[in-house]
Amino acid sequence: MARTNNVTELIITGLFQDPEVQRVCFVLFLPVYLATVLGNGLIVVTVSVSKSLRSPMYFFLGYLSLVEITYSSTVVPKFITDLLTKVKTISFKGCLAQIFFSHFFGVTEILLLVVMAYDRYVAICKPLHYMNIMNRQLCHTLVAGSWLGGFIHSIIQVLITIPLPFCGPNVIDHYFCDLQPLFKLACSDTFVEGIVVLVNSGLISVLSLIILVSSCVIILFSLRNRSAEGRRKALSTCASHIMVVILFFGPAIFIYMWPSSTFTGDKLVAVFFMVITPMLNPIIYTLRNAEVKIAMRKLWGKKENSGMGT
């Protein structure tokens, strides 16, 4: 049976309907997005040029910050500009592209967080073998595997959506394109597709969270016989990672494991992990990491000195 698709353009309801509230949101979210790009971009540059940040942990942190920029940029710029428009529209192909890239970068971030947890496990539990285990080749393989995993996940999401018939209506109840609200517009039953999304998105989050929590438990268990200073350093390193994991995984599991019927709760939760969390990550990692802060001071110190020299 041929696919029926009379929908070429979608109308997005947005986060709020009140124009005044939308303008307030614009004033609030624009600085947040700029801080996300600048903060994560600063980490990427610092890790790339600083000779003191050559360990695998900072190699992964640089890629995590890069993914944060791309992940947020798939949705937030259009979301912010839509706050100033009365009718918010997106083409059907643009909608599919937004779904693909948001899931691509989102799952890549999840897998990078798992990789970083493994890196911390090896560093703390097997310190004498750390550099041999986390060699350059393995680090590149783990990063490439994270990107590949994100691609496979997102291409599955798009491939199950393309065959669906869309014959109207064309109003999507969200502030960006995502699978659950888009499925509501299909002219056929999407129960099977919904299950696939649940397995593909929700279980990735849950299983990754289980791995991350397990690694933290193993690390804490291994610290029993360490000195107080050793425990403090290890816990400080893990604390930053745990905070980021909670901020990212909590909302993601809420949306994909317990989808609501009105999407009002989903929209508010999605704002948090799509807009707010990417801004908080560089703050969390830099404020609790002396090496990153020192490297940033040296980087800016060199720039200031070179500027004075010219």
UniProtKB/TrEMBL annotation:
The chain crosses the membrane at residues 26-45, 57-76, 96-118, 138-160, 203-223, 235-256, 268-287. The keyword Glycosyltransferase does not apply. Keywords: Cell membrane, G-protein coupled receptor, Membrane, Olfaction, Receptor, Sensory transduction, Transducer, Transmembrane, Transmembrane helix. It comes from the Eukaryota. GO terms for cellular component: plasma membrane. InterPro entries: GPCR_Rhodpsn (IPR000276), GPCR_Rhodpsn_7TM (IPR017452), Olfact_rcpt (IPR000725), Olfactory_Receptors (IPR050427). Residues 39-285 form the G-protein coupled receptors family 1 profile domain. GO terms for molecular function: G protein-coupled receptor activity; olfactory receptor activity. The keyword Membrane applies. Belongs to the G-protein coupled receptor 1 family. This is Olfactory receptor. The lineage of its organism: Eukaryota, Metazoa, Chordata, Craniata, Vertebrata.
